[in-house]
Amino acid sequence: MSGTDLETTPYAALAFAVLAASTSAILVRWSHAPSSVAAFYRVVFTTAIVAPIALVWYRDEFGRLSRSDLAFAVVAGVALAVHFAAWFESLNYTSVAASVTLVQTQPIFVALGAVLVLGERVSRTTVFGIVVAIIGAAAMSLGDSGQAPLADATMYGNALALLGAVTVAGYVLAGRSIRQRVSLFPYVTVVYTACAATLFVLVGAQGHDYVAYPTSEWLLFLAMAIGPGVFGHTVINWVLKHLESVVVSVAWLGEPLGATLLALVLLEELPDAITVAGGLVVLVGIYVTTIERERTSG
């Protein structure tokens, strides 16, 4: 593989992961199980896929995990659990476009955390790219004409989506720090295990049944794990070792565009011209931020 191929691979993987993640909202909408239950089994099945790989090929690395890295991985897992629980529930109160767009305001929090916690430098051009992408995402929501336009969505649903944004920002920042020292599969195994344990407690606290669901629901849980779980979040964790957290987070803003297009086809949530224009602005923000990263790192 040439040097150019090695440089291109993280960006190709990032694009693939964003596409896979775009299917998440659709799968959640199709499920009739409680939100916390769907989130729990998504993570359980994802863990069942990645843990055997970690235990067979990376067993020795678990013993070399420092206490601080282990603690941060657990914190990342808890943050991811809160993200899933809040975001899945928000989809019960607003449209796919609105919910996914609100949760993708997380680059604001990632950029702040990258400066304050990780010491990363964020240039003015990167900030400009983030602002452009956020404006585009906001336009998508304002133009949303789906089942529950943003203007009519409850404050509860909006707050849940924003809580999902804050917690996933913490998850991204923790991953960026730890992934410089820990291999992908040991890291995600610890994170997903902590996430699943947190969601298990939440399901019980809410009084939901753990197993009484039809076959169709179990297939949806498995699809959530394989698609947005393995090909989405797990690939993102691999990318975090090779690209800055701000770049990854802004690229994640492509998810509202992908989810909106899928909602159009699969849920018949028809976006209007403002929504389409907003999606194009999001892509401009992603492009500006990615190009700036290439300039400053080169």
TrEMBL record:
Enumerate the spans annotated as EamA domain. Answer: 14-141, 156-290
Instruction: List where this protein forms a coiled coil.
Output: none
Q: What is an example of a Pfam family matching this protein? A: EamA
Which SUPFAM superfamilies does this UniProt record tie to the protein?
Multidrug resistance efflux transporter EmrE (SSF103481)
Note whether Metal-binding occurs among the keywords: no
User: Which stretches are transmembrane?
Assistant: 12-32, 38-58, 70-88, 94-118, 125-143, 155-173, 185-206, 218-240, 247-267, 273-291
Q: Name one GO cellular component term.
A: membrane
Superkingdom of origin organism: Archaea
Q: What is this protein called?
A: EamA family transporter
**Which controlled-vocabulary keywords does the entry list?**
Membrane, Transmembrane, Transmembrane helix
Which range is the signal sequence, renumbered to this chain? none
